[in-house]
Structures are given as structure tokens and as C-alpha cells.
Amino acid sequence: MPAARxxxxxxxxxxxxxxxxxxLRAHASILPVLVVIALLALPVPAxxxxxxxxxxxxxxxxxxGQAVVLSVRSRRRPLTRSAAVILGxxxxxxxxxxxxxxxxxxxxAGAARYLQIFVLVPAAVLLLIRDARQFRVVAWAFVAxxxxxxxxxxxxxxxxxxxxxMGEDIRAVGTFGxxxxxxxxxxxxxxxxxxxxxxxRPDAPRQRTAAAVCAALLTVPLALSFSRGAWIATVAACxxxxxxxxxxxxGRVLLAGGAxxxxxxxxxxxxxxxxxxxxxxxxxxxxxxxxxxxxxxxMWAASIDMWRERPVTGVGLKGFPEYRDxxxxxxxxxxxxxxxxGHGFVRQPLLSPHNMYLLVLGExxxxxxxxxxxxxxALLVCxxxxxxxxxxxxxxxxxxxxxxxxxxxxxxxxxxIDFVYADIGGPSTVLMAIAFGAAAWWALGSHxxxxxxxx
Length: 455
Hints:
The chain has a domain at 85-294 and 343-444. 65% of the residues lie in helices and 4% in strands. The protein has 17 helices and 4 strands. It starts with 19 loop residues before the first helix and ends in an 11-residue tail after the last helix.
């Protein structure tokens, strides 16, 4: 009697998006963070100085709300004691400076902005990121946004549709427009640092290669942003990332990068005269500064003078524009000229010293600067200490989370150096808050183990 044939089994039906839904469920906690990052890709209307960054600022409230809901549902203390102290430290100086503002409305608005950027959003991002996989998803979102803005910036340079620079509309600004020339430089710098860190991810050769290629590509729009402060901060952060990855790795990468730079610049003549002039101006700012550098030095001196007038508490939140003229010298110009990138000529008033430390010193005094800068320094120390513990425990390889450590330390180093040349303001500021939160996850998070899920 012939053997019975087995009945055919029905193959599982693969529905469209079948792999997407499990991924969304696995990363549901960080979806509001990804939405905020995605909104920063929106273009700036030609007739307005607002952008997707305004929407991103509003949506950042959802990030905080999501963190509150998850904390209530988990029924456990959301932050460790160290995280609560370090992230809550700026509240002291902000509150005191708010009471010293020129009006209650100004004090409330200034306090809300500072608390959003340096306390609430970073703490929320710290709570929403659950493990290294979600941390890397946020990192790749940074890289994707940087690539998008970088492609637009390179196109602006090649077609002469960027912001005005030295009489030509060639400055790469992405979707941020001529009124926020630092926006694209900040986004691209974040993406470059994240990509470089992801290039050292263990046991993921394809992602390492993709990250290394992205890091190399992002150097082009960064150069075309003509932002000296972003250049200096990015070089310092990338060198720090390489050194933390290992001296041998750092030596190989630096030698390869130097060889490529020599071939491109000396061999093929890549690099315009304007770019070379901008590079050389970094070492000439003290001898023959241009008007932008003169204005910056003058505003720095004005901030210090405000601090001397009220050394402990400063002149109050958002007080720099009100006290600027009474403390600045006659060398200060009436404003900076902006044009191009879809916008007409605009004379922008100089409302900040373009130095975060001096802005806080002038408006919040020694109390505010100690609290805010102390919080940032503590974050960096905790991040480096955790990198050291992981490296000692795992050996030279650095462990499976080496890329997370490099990204957190790199972003913090970049931001703390860039604060010497910039302060808060513009659509990219909310991205800064997310960067602080991502770094805080590595430095201060409890890092509880989770079950494996979709990558």
C-alpha cells in the first residue's frame, strides 16, 4: 500500500509592511524623537523666517509627554539620583535669572526655553531610549537628516542658490535659509560625529562601511557651510572619537584622511579660493579681523561688562539685547547682512554674543553659569567614565556598545566647544536638546537588559 502523501501546508501570507510593524512596536518609545528629527528637514518658506523647526519645537512637547506617560505606567522612579541631580542642576540658575528679568513675561518665556532645551527634552530622551539598538536608531536619524541637509547645501553651492557670502550666493545652508546660517552646519556636524562613531560598531561590518562612507560624504557640505566654529568643533570631536576608539585606529584613520586631503587639495586642486581664505582666517582673527569677528569680540566684552555689573545673578533672562548698547563699544555694527537661499536682503540685529558661556554669564551670572556648565561637564565626565569601565571590562575591543560611547562623548565634546562660537537660537536648537538627551542615556542611564527584538 503506497505511503500517504503529506498534505501541503499553506505558506504564510506576507503582507506589505509585515517587517515594519514589528519594528515600529519595538521602537515605539522613541517614535516622537524621530518625528522631531524628521520635521527639521522641512523647507523654510521664502516669505517667512520660520521653518519646520518651529513645528519641531512644538512636537518636542510630545517627547516630554511620552516620557511622562511611560514613567507613570512603569510605576518606578524614572531617573536615577545622579541623573536627577545633574539634569536638574540648571533649574537653579534659570529660576533665579527668571526673577531678575525685565518683565514677568520675558522671564517666563526665557525660563521655558532654557528648561525645554537643557532639562525637559534631554530628560525625556534619556527615559525614552531603552537600549543600544534604539540609541543607534536615533544616531542614524541624525545621519539621515545630515545627509539630506548636506545634499541640499552642496546643490546650493554648485548652483549659486545658497546664502550670500563674499558677494556670491554660494553658502550652503540647507533648508534653514540665510537667516540661520549655522543651522545646516550644526546638523551636518552632528551627523558626521554620529557616523564616525557608528563606523566603530562591533560585529556589524556592513553598517560600519555605510557609516564610514556617510562620514566622508558629510565633510563636503560641512566645508561649504563656511562655518569656522563648526569646523573647529568637528575636528576636535572627531579626533576625540578616534582616540577613544583606540590609538592604533586613530593613527590609521588620521593617516588615511591626511593622504586623501593631500591628494584632493594638492593633486586635483579641490577647494575654492574662498574656502582656503576662510580656513586661513581662523589664525588671523586677532591680527586683521573682519567685521563679523569684530562684532563678536565686542559683544563678548559687553557680556563680561554685564556680568561685572551683577556678578552673582546677571542681568536676567533675555536681558542681553536690552543691556547691549549701554555696555558695547562703538566698534559694534548695527547688525549683520543676510540674503540669498530664497530670502531677500535682511538686516539682522545682533541680539546675542554668539558665545553660550558668556551669554549665560551675562544674563544668569556666576550662579547660572556654574549650574549650567557644571551640568554639561558632569555629563561629559560620566560619559567618559562609563566608556572607561566598559573598555576595561571588555578589553581593547571596547565591547558591543563602543559606538554608543563614542557617539555620546563626541556629541558632548562638539557641543561644548561649539558653545564658544555659538549659543541657542534657531530651528536646530531642539536637535541640540535631543543630542544632550542621547548623551545622557549613555552617561546616566540605568541600562537595564531587555529581551531581544527586531533590529
